[in-house]
Amino acid sequence: MLDLRPNCECCNKDLPPQSEEAFICTFECTFCADCATHVLKGTCPNCGGNFQPRPIRPDSALQRHPASTERIFKPEGCHPAPTDAAS
């Protein structure tokens, strides 16, 4: 089950469970649309994977399976994942 993390790892913007601005990678690293698109250029800085819009959990399911309250934030900011120079 997805954690539905409460914030952008890059800028610390709040991303409540119903946010349409939340993007995740395959490891559930969570970023706002602005950081995922403009800062990170669509590539997760942690794993190198791509981003997808985070699904919105219905309110009825949130009652049984609440969103995470653990904030993950990189105060030094995010930087795009290194590219393979040999390609």
Concise account of the structure shown:
The chain is mostly loops and 87 residues long.
- Distance from first to last alpha carbon: 35 Å
Overall body shape: elongated
CATH class: Alpha Beta
Structural class: little secondary structure
Region (Disordered): 58-87
Biased composition (Basic and acidic residues): 67-77
Pfam families: DUF1272
Protein name: DUF1272 domain-containing protein
Key words describing this protein structure:
87 residues; little secondary structure; Herpes Virus-1; three-stranded antiparallel β-sheet; 2 helices; 3 strands; 9% strand
How would you describe this protein?
The chain has 87 residues and is mostly loops. It has a single domain (1-74), classed as Herpes Virus-1 (2-Layer Sandwich), CATH 3.30.40. The protein is 15% helix and 9% strand. The protein has two helices and three strands. It has helices at residues 33-39, 59-64, and strands at 22-24, 30-32, 52-53. A three-stranded antiparallel β-sheet has the order 2-1-3. The chain is elongated and about 40 Å long. The termini are far apart. InterPro entries: DUF1272 (IPR010696). Pfam families: DUF1272 (PF06906). It comes from Roseibium sediminicola. Residues 67-77 have a biased composition (Basic and acidic residues).
